[in-house]
Amino acid sequence: MADTAKVTRQQQPGRPATDPGPDPGPVVGPGPDSADRPRPSDRRSAVRSLLRLWPFVRPVRARLFTAAFVAVLASCIGLVIPLVLKWLVDGPIADRDPGGAWLGGGYLLLLGLAEAGLFGLRRWLVARPLAHVEATMRDSLYRHVQRLPVAFHDRWASGQLLSRGTTDLQLLRLFLAFPLTFLIVNATTILVGCVILLVQRWSLGLVLLAPIVPLIVLCSVFEAKYAVAARRAQDQVGDVTTVVEESVLGIRIVKGFGRHRSQARAFRELTARLRATELRKARLLAALWACIMALPELALGAALVLGTVQVADGDLSAGTLVAFLSTALALMWPVESIGFLLAMSNDAAAATDRYFEVLDEPVADRDDARKAAEQTPVTGPGTTRSGTTAPGTISSGTTDPGTTGLAFHGVTFRYPDAPTDAPPVLRGIDLHIRPGETMALVGATGSGKTTLTALVPRLHDATGGRITLDGTDITALPRAELRARVAVAFEEPTLFSATVAENVLMGGEGAGSDDLRRALRVAQADGFVDALPDGPDTEVGEQGLSLSGGQRQRLALARAVVGRPRFLVLDDPLSALDVHTEALVEAALRQVLATTTALVVAHRPSTVLLADRVALLSGGRIAAVGSHHQLLRENAEYAALMSGTADGAGTARHEGESVR
Ligand SMILES: Nc1ncnc2c1ncn2[C@@H]1O[C@H](COP(=O)(O)OP(=O)(O)OP(=O)(O)O)[C@@H](O)[C@H]1O
């Protein structure tokens, strides 16, 4: 497996590698600035970001608009209450009319009840559709992440993806439930309220409206600063999630190497950074809130003094002043709440950006099979794309009936994140595995064996040349069909939180219990599986951690063979087996390999002996192809690799296993 790749990833900027020194850094986790994290190149305005939510909101727009209308209605009812008060003070109270006062009280009660009822109705209207929007968005994100190429997952920290699918989506649901509605409701309420104030007494109204301009300037300054802090905080939540997730998954390494202190330190540093950002957000919000509270209060005080003087001079009725002040007080909350509504909207805009950064990542083109078929003319066997004859029998079309089995034609590959001056990992690979043949792939550590095998099921796409299955270019095959034809088992056997049977059966579409039995038998897994508490129905837990390494490897092998694939790609699948079990698995594998076309990465001679022929990968090229014994005789590098004496051969653990 690509151990070296993992080291490369950990050594990227901001991702400290395991440090064997006296003060080791964290075993895992993003570093100070998480510089390896993809970031948006430019910050779009909050409104433009939030508008991207429309496709998800569209299906529930009727309910959302109705809810907003109901909220506006409720808020406007709140503005009618001061008018009833004016009538009550200037009418029944001034006339000392108890009947009128009771009537006025009744009106006020009814209006209050209507306001409360309408706000309740709004909550009821939005609850279900917003849960639906959140679920749909989460579903889209999950499906998209599943379809993104392996190169994407190599680049992105898992915690960043987790936080986008959880906390960011919760922020978005909150935004749709409150700020979106209340920004509309409050703006309408403030507008209607201002008209009422100006109509009641325009001079007092103007005094109250004076703080509007400074408030607008303040809000725009705040918005710009808060947006940056909001984005930083959400990214930092992603970093914290990554550290927690990796620490839990790597708990054996953390404990085994006594790294819990350094791991805890890394966690503390990240949480301290997050805390600092949250405090900055709080300070910004507090400053804005102080201004938003103080300025209108000052204006209200001035209007009160001016109004009292006018009542004393007999220019204004007491009822009008009461109504005016009640209206102004009713507008206080809509004005004051603008601060946190803006803050929540900015949090939501940052969450939207983060969400779409993942969703905008191009998936491996689903239609590339069709496009390749349309664009590439099918030429006869033995011609290249330019029409010239290639070495061997290589066709450039999407189908090449002349080449059956699995064939690599001038395949080149370079990792997308590799330094530009680094040579490609694979260069001009020409290899033909005939139908029914088993080819062992041997090479030093880091020579590109895993990379080459990953190209067949298209976990990565070759950057040059072509790979054909029975003459058909793999890029011309729909991915589902390709993966049905090719089964893989990697050195790192990943099992899911599911039963043994489910884990194995996911290797073959439509495979049943007979196939399961056969596959378990082939992988020599039937014995230990039957001994599990519920047999094949035993839950094997997260990553199958309740099983031994060898048991997991055998289940991964069973998964590879359960669908009776025509092509089998095995990346050193026997590495964790003891010698006795390995011999049993090999014996069973021989039967499977006899009927499939297989490419098997092999480190030890016993695995090589399963193969009909061996290909030696060296310097990114196929250096030699032949039988095991032929290569042992004729190729010094191969002989050194097999005897475990080669530099970095990666076979040290199997020293002494030489077969001659
Ligand atoms: N995701 C990646 N990004 C960049 N480089 C990578 C990546 N994965 C692997 N590499 C590099 O590609 C080269 C080949 O790696 P690969 O895992 O294919 O070697 P290998 O022959 O399978 O090694 P081993 O025998 O140790 O499993 C190495 O130099 C490795 O560092």
TrEMBL record:
Membrane topology (UniProt): Multi-pass membrane protein
Keywords, comma-separated and alphabetical: ATP-binding, Membrane, Nucleotide-binding, Transmembrane, Transmembrane helix
InterPro entries: AAA+_ATPase (IPR003593), ABC1_TM_dom (IPR011527), ABC1_TM_sf (IPR036640), ABC_transporter-like_ATP-bd (IPR003439), ABC_transporter-like_CS (IPR017871), P-loop_NTPase (IPR027417), Type_1_exporter (IPR039421)
Compositional bias annotation for Pro residues: 19-29
Chain segments annotated as transmembrane: 64-89, 101-121, 174-198, 204-222, 284-309, 321-344
CDD domains listed in its UniProt record: ABC_6TM_Rv0194_D1_like
PANTHER family, alphabetized: ATP-BINDING CASSETTE SUB-FAMILY B (PTHR24221), ATP-BINDING CASSETTE SUB-FAMILY B MEMBER 6 (PTHR24221:SF654)
Entry protein name: ABC transporter ATP-binding protein
Organism: Streptomyces chrestomyceticus
